[in-house]
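ok so dumb question maybe but i'm new to this and my supervisor (M.) told me to 'just get the structure for Polysaccharide deacetylase family protein' and walked off. so i did the thing. is this what she meant?? sequence i used:
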Amino acid sequence: MRVPILTYHGVNIAGNDYATNDHVAFAADLDAIHALGLRIVPVAWVVDAVLGRATRDLARCVALTCDDGSNFDYHDLDHPQHGRQKSFYNALLDFRARHGAHAQPDLHLTSFVIAEPAARDAMDRLCLVGRDWMREDWWRAAQASGLVAIENHSWDHNHPCLTSPGPAGLVRGDFHDVGDEAKAEFEIAQAQDYIASRIERRPSLFCYPFGHVNDFLRADWLPRRGAALGLDAAFGDGATPATVDTDRWNVPRYICGWHWKSPEGLAQILRDAAK
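this is what came out, is it supposed to look like this??
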């Protein structure tokens, strides 16, 4: 198993071409992955293989994730500068309409969402365009669709735009600083409870904000607390394929716009993983 896990951000809209718009890239990448004869599978299947609890054949497979949980993950929206944007969810539906459900029978996307409403509201006003595009009212419908899973991207992303003080002296803007019990409970455990209350299912996966992975969370707190919280694995940004030897608390991913910026860049990642 050498599965590249690809990651997109619904708020990355700086134009309407591949290099400047993750929605354009996502739709193009679905077709490119399919054209290469690769299978798209749920990222939870990759975790099952890492944990040794399933024996699915995951050769020549790809998994898809997206971060932050903006409305752009699920709803088509009119961007004030760049016009109508196709959501990741509707891009999946369009792919199925073009190719048929049999083409990628396990088609799936995992959306890592931020839990706290006040934090999402602040990010919407200060980092987006202030149109209330960081809501949670689509989470349950997305989860129920069978095409999207809602998972944990922390309580408030420890985002630098937040003016509220972090607990126990937490330094805003740096998830590496989530380095003790109180901070971890604040950022991860309470997010588990909140998201579960909204989708009637406990998240089983966590994604480190900013890709900031520290030894306390990876090697101590998550191995101790993860099972009790319902967590099976956590995801970073290591830019290598996931294998059966992957650290379950630091599963690597490739980030669109960082680890690849063009169709050719993605094709190289996919070719290397398939070797």
